[in-house]
Design goal:
With 305 residues, the chain is mainly alpha-helical. Helices cover 77% and strands 0% of the residues. It has one domain. It is built from 14 helices and no strands. The protein is globular and about 50 Å long.
């Protein structure tokens, strides 16, 4: 029987990855408009969500951070937010929402290997075979990334950047569980976003200062608000809640929710189309991930969560 804390962790992870699925479609629409550059969008998300975490911290008991932990939190900020989001925002203009979601489903595979290295867990031939199958699916997706009209919907660059996105976030999930468990979510995340904002400001301050928000269409402002409040503040509040009670490999398993949401929504709004090549690639990738995830050692991980 699941403990109440574990149930809360499952709910938190499911909600976060559901929002991440919507995030793919919204980011695609906003970045394709050319109204805001990827680095400026990242800075606004980091600045807005960070401000919310710092405001909330004023109404909570003060929790001091040990001096030696600041460098660890900085590293977590680089991997878990700065690199993860920059890879994603740079990739989204070079990849369709559907293809993007297919690639992000590889996150549990990366997390498994990282956790195996950190926890010294054995890798079976079944897991290695599943990874090979998923890589075949990604390769097939790259080779079929041009439409019949000759317009590139998904480019190899977009695929590589999205792989970097998933790998960075998997490293974050697999490495920083101890430091995340040490501090409250608000304390940890307010420093995560402060460091990320300081990293991004030198590259985006000029654009943000000159950006005419009043001239932006209402729908773009609404999308920006969604990205800051829901896809950044709420999701990065919920993920640490799951990390505190669930194993890294199980947290990453909830990334399966993301492609389902992104594919359904992107097709519904006419942003993407379903081709037989994409179906083949998706089935191959998901089959490989399933083989990895449901191997004996994986089932052992889940039972301990």
């Amino acid at each position: 029987m699941l403990k109440q804390s574990s149930i809360l962790g499952h709910i938190a992870c499911f909600t976060a990855y559901l929002i991440f699925g919507l995030n793919i479609v919204v980011c695609k629409d906003l970045t394709s408009s050319g109204a805001i550059s990827p680095i400026a969008l990242f800075t606004l998300r980091s600045l807005g969500a960070g401000a919310l975490f710092w405001i909330i911290s004023l109404f909570q008991p003060t929790q001091s951070v040990e001096k030696g932990d600041y460098i660890k939190i900085f590293a977590a900020s680089v991997l878990g937010f700065f690199l993860t989001q920059m890879f994603f925002l740079l990739a989204i203009s070079h990849i369709t929402p559907m293809d993007c979601s297919i690639i992000t489903s590889l996150s549990p595979v990366y997390t498994m290997f990282i956790a195996a290295y950190a926890l010294k867990e054995p890798l079976s031939a079944q897991k290695i075979g599943g990874v090979a199958l998923s890589l075949c699916g990604i390769t097939y997706l790259i080779l079929n990334s041009v439409t019949a009209s000759g317009t590139a919907e998904t480019t190899p660059l977009g695929v590589v950047l999205m792989i970097g996105n998933s790998l960075s976030f998997s490293l974050y999930l697999g490495i920083f569980k101890p430091i995340i468990s040490k501090y409250s979510v608000v304390t940890f995340m307010k420093w995560i976003f402060l460091f990320a904002t300081l990293l991004a400001l030198p590259f985006s301050a000029k654009e943000i200062v000159s950006l005419n928000f009043v001239a932006l269409p209402v729908e773009y402002l609404a999308e920006l608000a969604f990205l800051i409040i829901c896809a950044t503040f709420i999701t990065y509040f919920l993920i640490p809640v799951g990390q505190k009670t669930l194993r890294p490999t199980l947290v990453s398993m909830y990334s399966y929710v993301q492609p389902i949401v992104a594919i359904v929504v992107s097709i519904y709004v006419g942003m993407d189309t379903l081709s037989w090549q994409k179906v083949v690639a998706a089935i191959t990738v998901f089959a490989g991930v399933a083989i990895v995830s449901y191997s004996r050692s994986k089932l052992k991980d889940n039972s301990q969560a």
